[in-house]
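Figure-free illustration: sequence to structure, shown twice.
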Amino acid sequence: MTNSRTPAFSRRGILTTGMGLGAVGVLSACGGSSATDTPTATGDGGKGGYDGPKVDLAFWNGFTGGDGAFMKKLVDQFNGEYPNIAVSMRVMQWSDYYTTLPTAVTADKGPDIAVMHVDSVATNAARKVIQPLDDVASALELSADDFAPVPWEAGIYNDVRYAIPLDVHPLGFFYNKTLMETAGLDPDSPPLDLDSYMDALDKLKGKGIQGHWASPHLFTGGLSMQSLIAQFGGSMYSEGAKEATYNSEEGVKAFTWFQDLIKQGYSPAKVDQDADFLALQNGQNAFNWNGIWSLNTLAEKTDLQWGVSRLPNIGGKNAAWAGSHQFVLPTQKTPDANKDQASRVFLNWISQHSLEWAKGGQVPARNSVRESAEFQALTGQAELAKQIDDLVFLPAVAGIGDAGAEFDKAFNEIVLGQKDVKSTLDGAVERANKILEANVKKYG
């Protein structure tokens, strides 16, 4: 997370998650069904460590940003503590990762351990790219009591656990304190409800400051919209994602509020990708809803007076979009009991030591780490962790990313093109529902 254009969890990361979902379909076409009978990762070890023969473990992920150094540090520390386990980490762009992994698994050349974005887990589970982990969680004595509920539940697909959460990375509210003072606002008391937020925007506007730049791009305007829909009491999809539902009354209210930021002069009409975040840093934009990955970028701006808080509650309900990195164990055609156990030890150890990972701009999913005094000392991360029970994930349904493109297109048209909200959403939902229906046949 060294800069706004290449954050550890980047626009590229989530955008290519959708690409990866489609690419996973290649697995079945390439003979992925041969993995159907692969046994799950079972056994009776892991929690107490590993004392078997030396094993080499391959660990794949897409941590090409600043967070990669934090994970590398953890891997090196683990290797130092476990001389009979040698973990090698392969890092690649997420777009490459989500296409390379299924192919490698099919060829029985996949890694022993991997990390996935939470919205990729269901699709890869449906395609047998990753193994069920109920027995792994049982062997490690992990339960819902050990993790925040939202990311823990998100690792379940069709009543079977396929992932163990490492972190969450939510949106937060970043504000320029200097601009707030210019408008006569208290820089240490950011507006966190609808009335105070609109009052602040009016005061900023009175000083010639467009206070909230409405980005028409997925990062981070589209993620803000997903948060707003939930805040207004709506949802992106029905239960089980049988239908898209963001054209509901609640969805229309959320889109209208965001579109009105432009109509009422609180935002420029056309905001380029990342321009809203750069404007915050350059003293042009007072308020910016952005990801936790922005913390380290802003910390480098020593001459910038800024603050961070949970997202303002605009619609009446606390809610914030979030992503999550989750540990998965790729399917092995020729399982190795020693590697199975060593892999469990590794993922459990990283989870227990995820304070170091949090420093890269994450909120640990593990309660013991998140609730520790050491984590609370990471003030930005700790502030955004207050949203842990209000986070919004996409449903754990195979192929969910395939339908997301219709939402993204509608969002862009409504914000950038000022198209009619209801009719644009109705058209997007109609197209998305056809994709969701096709996915039932595609993924089972």
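We now fold a second protein in the same way, so the two outputs can be compared directly.
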Amino acid sequence: MITKIVIDNFMAHEHTELELGPGVTILTGANNTGKSAVVEALRCLATNPVRSPNPALYIRHGAKEARVEVEVDDGTRVAWVRTKRWAKYELWAPGAEEPEEYHKLQGRVPEDVAKALRLDQVELETRKDSVDVHLGNQRDPVFLLNQPDSVMAEFFAASTESAHLLAMQNALKMRVRDAKREERDLTDRIGRTADDLDRLAPLPDIARRMDEAEELERHAVRLERETPALEAALAEFGNLAGALARERAVGEALQGVQPPPPVRDVDRLKRHITSMDAVNADLARAERTAGPLAGLQVPPAAVDTGPLRRLIHDLDATRTALRKDADQRTVLAGLADPPALADTARLTAMVDELLVLRARSGRLARLETALGSIAEPSRPHPLGDLTAMVTEFAGLTTQISSRQAELDGLEADLQSVVVALEERIRALGCCPVCGGDLTADSFLDHGCRHGA
């Protein structure tokens, strides 16, 4: 007799332990609480199903394996472990610390395991399938209530516990009626759930439209990142255009300026200025001398010394001329006769041209100094591409606004659908298929997949 059942990650059970007392054990509770899953776990332990139904359906969503373990009254423990690819048994003899494992079963139950469980099915001569006298479902009772009388008679003939089974048959009839009533309720509930799922049919289209809106949003973000660079380029273009206009204005202003007059020799003017400075100095000394002499008597009348002054002047001039002639004769005594004078008209013209070129060179140097700090304007690019880009940017901005309005509408529709879905899930309480926990977030993320 089984005294304890431990179920891990099997269908809706994450971890369940059942301590069974002597006699009959009855499982009661609301619908979809895992009662049938306990029966199915014991059937898997007793029969090791391989292909029908898919063994992967027994594994709880998110787990890697399902495990069903029982302990019988003599202390023997038997465990059935199922992954998506293989199954194995573990058998602990009473008092053993390590289990004996059975692999590569190919849908069979090891003899030692079957002997320890004592849950063998009854084989009939006229039926291909065996009859399970230990486990049964609401729709498939233990005692063949839905089978012809001949099959039931054959079963009772093959059974060694017919008297006990007949006593239990009447109780099962009542359970079958209750089960049929519950089946009708579940059928109605399934219909209502199908209607609710039909109302959720627009969700894929909404998801697709949300993906399109997200793509448009990413495109808009990229355009927003590129907008500052475009604005900087436009600002730089405006600055360069202003600088070019100023340079053109300066060039046009310089074209109307007359060239400076040619530079003339100012040595004579310097000599005159020096003479004037000397005369002014003499006048100043004379004024300073006239001050002390103001109190002196008037000098006697001067005699006309003009002839004497002219004579002295003539003598000084004659003496100076004689001295200069003597110096020249001394210097020119060893020299050859001077060459004939050449025509200097061309040399004069070249000197004048050189002076003009020197003046122009000075003017050019001043212009280069003034224009040296001004960077050379870049070559203006054609505005056709920029105009097309600005037009495209304006069109994209309009598209972004329209797509944002559509996205707002989609978000409002999605919010209303999510609210309706949450209300329906709260009304259901749990997954109508597997009985597991069900929330709006998990349903929208992966739809409560039962084949995972």
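Summary for the second example: The chain has a mean pLDDT of 78.
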